[in-house]
What we know:
Protein name: NTE family protein
Active site: 38, 167
Keywords: Hydrolase, Lipid degradation, Lipid metabolism
Pfam family, one: Patatin
CATH class of the largest domain: Alpha Beta
Domain PNPLA: 5-180
Amino acid sequence: MKRGLVLAGGGARGSYQVGVYQALTELGWRPDVITGTSVGCLNGAMFATGQWATARDMWLTIDTRQVITDPPDPEQGVLNFWQETMRGGGLDVTPLESIVDRVLDEDALRTSPIEFGLVTVNKRNLRPLELTAQQIPQGQMKDYLLASAACFPAFRPRAIEGEQFIDGGYADNMPVGLARRMGAEEVVAVDVDGIGITRRMPPQLPVILVRSHWELGAILTFDPQQARQNIALGYNDTYRAFGRILGIAYSIQAGQERALTEGFVRPYAELLRRVMGANPALTFAEQAALGGLEKLAATAAARALAPLERACELAGVAPEPVYTAGELFEEFLQRVDPQICLRFAPLFEADAGLCIREAAQAAAAPGEFLQALVAASLRGSQGGEEP
Length: 387
């Protein structure tokens, strides 16, 4: 079966795709076709020519000034930034050209056993141009890669043979359809929440979608520290997409189901039932605190973990590591604010009845209530005091 890897556009968020490719390689999932838009096609060109390590090292070292000449000042405000950018016809990405010159091996890309395709758009008529490596004229590979990544109006259009081309995201930011037309029969599509048009998946094409629950940083801010985090998230999310990691937002080692059930799911359900029985209105506070995270879960077991994961997120637990159940429990308990737990402690007492003051506090601060509820559940399961 012919496999396709589709890499969406998203500027500096493209570092996430490096972690995805590393995980796919470890899982033995190797693409026969790679298609990409914008930063996705720049990454894809390196992946197709066996330059994953080059891509990783590049992302871990470049900053915004190595991509954009005179990058925007974050202090100037969004409106001033766009006014200055439009006045200058777009940001100058000459430094990015130097990076592409350094990493692009056009001959290797043309002869790679992995077929390569990209999307750009004609600025004059806004018509998309979908091209495979073989359809791009000799010597113009760099031009079309940069054309696909010309995020107009932030970046200047790319001129090729008298025509101006702009970012492929104006037509198809995640070109699954192009991969299918190139013969892909199953696809891994990597979404980095970029700006552009994302088309509906072609019917009857098996697609594994890899995307992050977490914010991957500003599109035009290239930062090695953010890139390192994004690579770790992309790696974990790929294992999650293939069923090798548990959790929705956090990464929990496979095989930890029993520890999760005994250490959190069961105690939480029992405490929740008792607390809600005395204070039914708290049901709304818990749902408000979850913020819809449970709706992202594909299974009932995953949904049962949503309160723990949301509480970890609110407490500031780092998302990059792969945790055991016990490690995640301990990390949360170390980070949760003890004052929050004390504030809601009367709700969790064994003989607690209606607690009007605490219920009102929960309605006003549902996230804090959820953290206290999760902390009480975990401590109760460990034989400690629930509050």
